Amino acid sequence: RSSRVVEIQSQMSERAVELLGLPEDRPCLLLDVGCGSGLSGDYISEEGHYWIGMDISPAMLDVAVEREVEGDLLLADVGHGIPFRPGMFDGCISISAVQWLCNADKKSHSPPKRLYRFFSTLYTALARGSRAVLQLYPENSEQLELITAQAMRAGFTGGMVVDYPNSAKAKKFFLCLFVGTSGTLPKGLGTECASEELHQAKFTNERTRFRNVKGKSVKKSRDWILEKKERRRRQGKEVRPDTKYTGRKRRPHF
């Protein structure tokens, strides 16, 4: 790998660990999802913490073994779930790996199912009150929505922290997730001049917002439409004004 790639990887690992907000008085056990050749792990070890890394690539893990990294390594596809005891980890980081779960590499692969399996088992494996910080490169806003929706379904709260939102090159997305407690979402770097609401896609644990009493989804209901329009407005898109006719039922055409 070029030294530039290594440098970027190290910076992102550093930022991810910083966003975990770990206690300073004791070493922690962290999970590194998509650990590759163990570059993030090197930083975790330097900080005095212990780690276990998971990766789907035997070649990358071979490099990690050659480099004699200090963490334990596991060859696994995180889309099948995180195979560890409940509450085992004090935190989880992941550098540019989670977006791969959005791809269906095999016919049997369903991205929403794989993401849900990953997030629900990760939630279980993390100690209450801990965090997971997942840096990712989303292809588009739909991918971001899919990833955050599945994290939310699995029980996480939190949201997206965006560093340097106004820079095409330096912009970085960190999905900052809380387990069992709702923490305050950290501020993104370089967002002082940007409007905060826009860049921190917060989500809460109101998992049943758009379900009616019988459990049916009320997608396309008035509330759902108004919320979607509001979201579009925040993204700076042209949206028609709301009126008393918004979301009205139309009679079927004959």
TrEMBL record:
It is found in: Cytoplasm; Nucleus. Residues 177-251 form the 18S rRNA (guanine(1575)-N(7))-methyltransferase Bud23 C-terminal domain. Residues 31-107 form the Methyltransferase type domain. One of its GO terms (molecular function) is rRNA (guanine) methyltransferase activity. Keywords: Cytoplasm, Methyltransferase, Nucleus, S-adenosyl-L-methionine, Transferase. It catalyses: a guanosine in 18S rRNA + S-adenosyl-L-methionine = an N(7)-methylguanosine in 18S rRNA + S-adenosyl-L-homocysteine. The keyword Nucleus applies. It comes from the Eukaryota. GO terms for cellular component: cytoplasm; nucleolus. S-adenosyl-L-methionine-dependent methyltransferase that specifically methylates the N(7) position of a guanine in 18S rRNA. Requires the methyltransferase adapter protein TRM112 for full rRNA methyltransferase activity. Involved in the pre-rRNA processing steps leading to small-subunit rRNA production independently of its RNA-modifying catalytic activity. Important for biogenesis end export of the 40S ribosomal subunit independent on its methyltransferase activity. Locus-specific steroid receptor coactivator. PANTHER family: 18S RRNA (GUANINE-N(7))-METHYLTRANSFERASE-RELATED (PTHR12734:SF0), METHYLTRANSFERASE-RELATED (PTHR12734). This is 18S rRNA (guanine-N(7))-methyltransferase. It comes from Sinosuthora webbiana.
